[in-house]
Design goal:
Layout: H1 5-12, H2 24-55, E1 62-65, E2 70-76, E3 80-86, E4 89-94, E5 98-102, H3 104-108
Antiparallel strand pairs: 1-2, 1-5, 2-3, 3-4
């Protein structure tokens, strides 16, 4: 019968000197820190960047809404934005409904 890897590792450590990483609370703290730096922080950065782009919307910018509608900004109001979807077709959306902003300088290239 071969001993399992865990039992071999448990026997390799002297009884009085347990590794600090073997403590459950230390592992939980490390997992929370990893989640913060790998998931939460980059998402917050992306959200702030999008909010900045939405705040600087100008007439002529190309946008994509959360519904997947590709349009050009026709008019910007305080809480809403009027988008030109097709010739003589204007739709008013809330600003948070804008998912992606392509500035007119970038769209021209």
């Amino acid at each position: 019968m071969t001993p399992s890897l865990l039992s071999v590792l448990a026997q390799a450590q002297p009884a009085g000197s347990a590794s600090p990483l073997s403590q459950p609370w230390v592992m939980m703290v490390l997992m929370v820190v990893m989640f913060y730096f790998l998931l939460i922080r980059p998402q917050q950065r992306q959200r702030k960047e999008l909010e900045k782009r939405i705040a600087s919307l100008q007439k002529g910018d190309e946008v994509i809404t959360t519904a997947g509608i590709h349009a050009i900004v026709h008019h910007v109001k305080e809480r809403t934005v009027v988008l030109k979807v097709a010739e003589a077709t204007l739709i008013e959306f809330d600003k948070p409904a804008v998912a992606t902003v392509v500035k007119k300088e970038a769209a021209a290239k």
